[in-house]
Design a protein that fits this description.
Helices cover about 45% and strands about 15% of the residues. The protein has 24 helices and 17 strands. The strands form two sheets. Strands 1-2-9-8-4-5-6-7-3 form a nine-stranded mixed beta sheet, covered by helices on one side. Strands 10-11-12-13-14-15-16-17 form an eight-stranded parallel beta barrel, surrounded by six helices. β8 (about 255-260) and β9 form a beta hairpin. The site of phosphoenolpyruvate has 10 residues, from β11 and α18.
Length: about 600
C-alpha cells in the first residue's frame, strides 16, 4: 500500500487529467466518450483515467485511508505514568483485534480467513509485550514503541522464511492499525460503511482488493495502476466498474457524488439525479450469455474463460463459457517448493477438464517466473526476471519438469472427455515452437500451440504457425514487451495499455500469420474482456476470446450487436490511430451499443 497522501501526487500519468468546470458548464468528458456513454454530458466536471472494468456506478466517494506512516521518535515526559502508557498499547491491540474479528464475522471464504489471520496477529501478545517494554524501559511514546516493536517482530518472521516470512505483512498491517488507534489517525484500509460507495485510492494493495465487497464498493478509482495491474484484473473478476491511472485525485473529496464509467475511463463529478438514475437503470440490466458467441451477422467467435483451478472452472461453466481458453496451471502450484508429482498434477487438472465435457480446454504449461516464481524451476537471482528464464524458457534448465507436466496433461486428458489443447507461454522463436510441438507429440498431445506474448513471435507468426496448431495472444505480456513497460508498474499505466496502436499492429501481424497457415488465433489476455477492444480483435481476425467469466455476457452482447464488417472497419480505425486514447475513443464513439448497455 502506498503511504503517499492522496492528491499529493504531482506527476500525473499522461492518461490522467482533471478538469473541473464551473457549475452549469458542460462536462469535460471528450465528445466521443461522452456521446458513447451518453450519461456524462450534464455534469459539472470530470476526472479522466483508464477504464479497466466496464460498467457504470454512482455513489459518494470514500477515500482509502493511507497508513499514518512512521511516528517521530518522541519520549514521554519524565513524570509520565509509564504503566498507564503501556496499558494504552494493550488497549489499542484489543480494539484492533476486536474490530477485525467483528469484520471477519460479516464475510466468508478467503476474505474471512484474511481478516481472522490479521486479528490473531493483533491478539498475539508478542508484539504488545515488545512495545510495552519500549514504553517502560526507553520511555518511548506508545505509537513509536509500537512502530519499533513491529519492525523487530517482522524482521524475526522474515528471518524464519517461508510461510512465517509472509506473516511480516500482517505485522505491518496490525502496526498501522495500532498507530491509528494510538494517534487518532483514520484507520487505514478500505472503509467499512453501511451504505455503498465509490472507493478512491492512490493505489490498492492486493489484499485491499481481495477484500472488496462488490455490494459495498460500487466503483473504484485509483491514481496509479494500469489495465493489467492486479487492481484491474480483480475489479473485472468482481464485476466492479473501475478507472485506474487517473493521476491527480484532489477533486474526488470524501463524500462527493461521482459517476464512474469503467468503460470510457471517466469519473463525472456531481452528476445530476437524472444522470444517476439512467446509469442505475443501465447497470441493473442483467445480461446473460447464451453459450455461443457470434457477431450480429452470425460470424462465430468462441467465448471462453480464463481459469486457474477447479473453482474457477466451475464458475466459468456456470457463466456459460464455451470452454477454457487459458488454464493457468502454475496457479495450482504457487506454494510448492518441490516439483509436484505427476499424480498430483493429474489430480489438479482433471476437475478442470471435467467441468467441460466435450468442450475445448486449453491447458497452458507452467508459466513460472517474473511475478509468479516457482522455486523448483525459476532462478531467484536474475536482475530482470521478466526478461529472464520464465515460461517455456524454464525447460532449458529443467526439461524434465515440462516433460512430466505433458505426461500429466496427457493422463488427465485420457481420463476426461474435454477436448484438450496444450500451449506454451513466452515462445519467442520458430525453434522453440518446433521443440515444444515435438515434446507434446511424444506424449500424444496433438493440439499443440503457442502463446504470442513476445513481439518476435507476433512478427514470426507465419513460420511459427506452420509448426504449431494454433496461437493464443497473451496481450498482457505482449503489451509489456512491445511497450517496454513493466505490467505491474502503475506509473506507466498509459504505456501498459493494449489499445496502443503498436500492440494492435502486432496482433494484426499474428492474425495475418494465422490466416496464411489457416490456423486459429485467439486472445486470452485482459484485452479480450474489454467489450470495445473485443470488437477490434474480431475485426483483426481473432477467432476466440478468453476472459474472466464475469465479462462473457458483456462481450457477447456487444459482439451480437455488431456485424463483422463493422468490426473490421473499427479495427482499421484503431490500428491507424496514433495513440491508445485516440484508438479507444474512436472505437467507442463508433459503438453506440456500449452506451445502450451502460458499458
Ligand atoms: C498474458 O500475458 O496476456 C496472459 C494471458 O498470461 P499471464 O497474464 O498469465 O501472464
Ligand atoms: Mg503472459
Amino acid at each position: 500500500m502506498s503511504t503517499e497522501q492522496y492528491g499529493a501526487n504531482p506527476d500525473r500519468t499522461a492518461a490522467g487529467s482533471v478538469a473541473e468546470a464551473t457549475a452549469g458548464e458542460a462536462g469535460t468528458v471528450p465528445a466521443a466518450a461522452g456521446t458513447a456513454a451518453g450519461v456524462a454530458g450534464t455534469a459539472a466536471g470530470s476526472v479522466r483515467g483508464v477504464g479497466v472494468s466496464p460498467g457504470l456506478a454512482a455513489g459518494p466517494v470514500a477515500r482509502l485511508a493511507a497508513p499514518a506512516g512512521e511516528p517521530a521518535i518522541a519520549r514521554l515526559a519524565p513524570d509520565a505514568d509509564l504503566d498507564a502508557e503501556a496499558a494504552r498499547v494493550a488497549g489499542a491491540a484489543e480494539r484492533v483485534a476486536g474490530d477485525l474479528t467483528a469484520a471477519a464475522a460479516t464475510v466468508d471464504g478467503e476474505r474471512r480467513e484474511l481478516l481472522e489471520t490479521t486479528a490473531q496477529m493483533a491478539a498475539d501478545p508478542t508484539l504488545v509485550r515488545a512495545a510495552q517494554q519500549k514504553v517502560r524501559e526507553h520511555h518511548l511514546v506508545p505509537a513509536r514503541a509500537a512502530w519499533e516493536a513491529a519492525g523487530e517482530v517482522a524482521d524475526q518472521l522474515r528471518a524464519l522464511g517461508g510461510y512465517m516470512a509472509e506473516r511480516a505483512r500482517d505485522v505491518h498491517d496490525v502496526r498501522d492499525r495500532l498507530i491509528a488507534v494510538l494517534t487518532g489517525a483514520p484507520m487505514p484500509g478500505v472503509p467499512r460503511r453501511t451504505d455503498p460507495f465509490v472507493l478512491v485510492a492512490h493505489d490498492l494493495a492486493p489484499a485491499d482488493t481481495a477484500l472488496l465487497d462488490p455490494t459495498q464498493v460500487r466503483g473504484i478509482v485509483t491514481a496509479e495502476g494500469g489495465p493489467t495491474s492486479h487492481t484491474a484484473i480483480l475489479a473485472r473478476a468482481l464485476g466492479i466498474p473501475a478507472v485506474v491511472g487517473a493521476g491527480d485525485l484532489a477533486a474526488l473529496t470524501e463524500g462527493r457524488q461521482v459517476l464512474v464509467d469503467g468503460g470510457a475511463g471517466t469519473v463525472t463529478l456531481d452528476p445530476d439525479d437524472a444522470t444517476v438514475r439512467r446509469a442505475a437503470e443501465r447497470a441493473a440490466r442483467v445480461r446473460t450469455f447464451d453459450g455461443a458467441g457470434r457477431t450480429a451477422d452470425g460470424h462465430r467467435v468462441a467465448l471462453l474463460a480464463n481459469v486457474g483451478d477447479q473453482a474457477g472452472a466451475a464458475a466459468a461453466a456456470a457463466a456459460g463459457a464455451e470452454g477454457v481458453g487459458l488454464f493457468r496451471t502454475e496457479f495450482c502450484f504457487l506454494d510448492h517448493t518441490q516439483e509436484p508429482s505427476v499424480e498430483e498434477q493429474v489430480a489438479a487438472y482433471r476437475p478442470v477438464l471435467a467441468a467441460f465435457p466435450g468442450r475445448k480446454v486449453v491447458v497452458r504449461t507452467l508459466d513460472a517466473g517474473a511475478d509468479k516464481p516457482l522455486p523448483f524451476v525459476t532462478a531467484t537471482e536474475e536482475a530482470n526476471p521478466a526478461l529472464g528464464v520464465r515460461g517455456l524458457r524454464t525447460a532449458r534448465r529443467a526439461p524434465e519438469v515440462l516433460d512430466h507436466q505433458l505426461e500429466a496433461i496427457a493422463q488427465a486428458a485420457g481420463a476426461e472427455d474435454a477436448e484438450v489443447w496444450v500451449m506454451a507461454p513466452m515462445v519467442a522463436t520458430v525453434a522453440e515452437t518446433e521443440e515444444f510441438v515435438a515434446a507434446c507429440s511424444r506424449r500424444g498431445l496433438g493440439m499443440a500451440g503457442v502463446m504470442v506474448e513476445v513481439p518476435s513471435a507476433a512478427l514470426l507468426a507465419g513460420p511459427i504457425l506452420a509448426r504449431a496448431q494454433f496461437a493464443s495472444i497473451g496481450t498482457n505480456d505482449l503489451t509489456q514487451y512491445a511497450m517496454a513497460a513493466d505490467r505491474l508498474l502503475g506509473s506507466l499505466a498509459d504505456l501498459s495499455d493494449s489499445w496502443q496502436p503498436a500492440v494492435l499492429r502486432l496482433i494484426e501481424a499474428t492474425c495475418r500469420g494465422g490466416a496464411q497457415q489457416a490456423r486459429p488465433v485467439g486472445v486470452c489476455g485482459e484485452a479480450a474482456a474489454d467489450p470495445a477492444l473485443a470488437v477490434v480483435l474480431v475485426g483483426l481476425g481473432v477467432s476466440s476470446l478468453s476472459m474472466t467469466p464475469r465479462a462473457l455476457a458483456d462481450v457477447a452482447a456487444v459482439l451480437a450487436a455488431t456485424d463483422l464488417e463493422r468490426c473490421r472497419e473499427l479495427a482499421r480505425v484503431a490500428v491507424d490511430a496514433e495513440s491508445a486514447q485516440d484508438a479507444r475513443d474512436a472505437v467507442r464513439a463508433g459503438l453506440p451499443v456500449l452506451a445502450e448497455l451502460g458499458l
